[in-house]
Amino acid sequence: MKRKEKNMTQEALAEKLYVSVGYISNMERGTTKINLSTLSDIADVLDCDISEFVSEASVYGKTYMFDEINELVGRLDENERRTLSELLKTYLSNK
Question: How far apart are CA 63 and CA 44, in angstroms?
Answer without folding.
Answer: 26
